[in-house]
């Protein structure tokens, strides 16, 4: 029996630290006026999508975005532990230019490996945490159409499975150190489905 659950992922609206090029990770900063407009436009996009629940990372910038969407959609957001952004350890709070010269900067920010900042989380650990939580939420609410507010590095890692160069063919394996090479925009909406029978995701 074909049993697929439709859901939508979106990054939070623009924040003060996004503008300042400062690494947030699991620290936080408020939405900018532009970020609030982006969240309102995201809500408007969702108006015709039959959204029945809003799930959000518990970090403030995601909650702010979800709250703006909830006003338009008249759905109270649910905070989900496990949807938090990647923990960037000692890099959190630093400006991008301060860590860019480090030898492992490109691997940590553009690849999906075990490499991580000191006291932080690797891309592989982030992906495992997020996918485990996402599958649990979608399984428990298989008939819901969910808007899920999350973060940029989660999207980079999770959406890599849909990037053609990173998808294994019958005669090859995915490139372990291939760059995901895409920065997801604030309040960008992505439609996907989850097959409850096979546990696989598809891009719509």
TrEMBL record:
Top enzyme category: hydrolase
Segments passing through the bilayer: none
Domain of life: Bacteria
PROSITE patterns listed in its UniProt record: PG_MUTASE
Xref: SMART domains: PGAM (SM00855)
Single annotated GO MF: hydrolase activity
EC number: 3.1.3.-
Keyword annotations: Glycolysis, Hydrolase, Isomerase
Pfam families assigned to the protein according to its UniProt record, in alphabetical order: His_Phos_1
Name under which the protein is recorded: Histidine phosphatase family protein
Species: Psychromonas arctica
